[in-house]
Amino acid sequence: MEDNLISKKDLLELTGISYGQLYRWKRKDLIPEDWFIRKSTFTGQETFFPKDKILDRIDKIIHLKDNASLDDLADLFSPNLSEMALYAADLKQRNIVSDVSWQLLTAQFGEAEVLTYERLIALYVLEQMLQTGEMNRDEGRILLQVLNDHYKRFDGKSCDLIFIRKMGVATFLLISGGSEVYLEDHAKLVQRIALSSSIEALKTRLSK
Predict the structure, then answer these.
(1) Which among 86, 140, 165, 201 counts the fewest CB atoms within 10 Å?
(2) What's the average model confidence in pLDDT over 151-161?
């Protein structure tokens, strides 16, 4: 469980939304079920949320809901890209990824005229992590293989990508979204990315 939580009471006061709005957005899949965290307190059971994620999501809903239906927003926030595919030429034309990322992908899996959603998200995450300067190309190849081999196992459910390095050796993990991670001594958590956020960002880029 994440340490940086906000209670439902504080969330409603801070954002100005109503109890009804919060649960309506939950029913419409705008807010993931696993963000509603029940915890025992001295007054009984209370609901908490991962603070940064819920505040960012509510801010986006408030700013987008006047120009998009709740169903469209649910699709935007969904971690599922299963119905999405894109011509490689379009992807390059939109400058969504760099030539370096594209070359790494094609060297590993071959040229493809159409990219499936698995390839799209792998390519986009690769680009994100290379842009930080904390991951080199060899590590990028490992990342691509891990996503290729294991991402489908989550079947549309939220998951996080963990990038760990110990004594110069890189390791990538895929875990259920929001799960706690504890590392052995001398291992460094280089990056942790919520893939649902990456998918949301990719969908936003593709919709422009």
Answers:
(1) 201
(2) 83
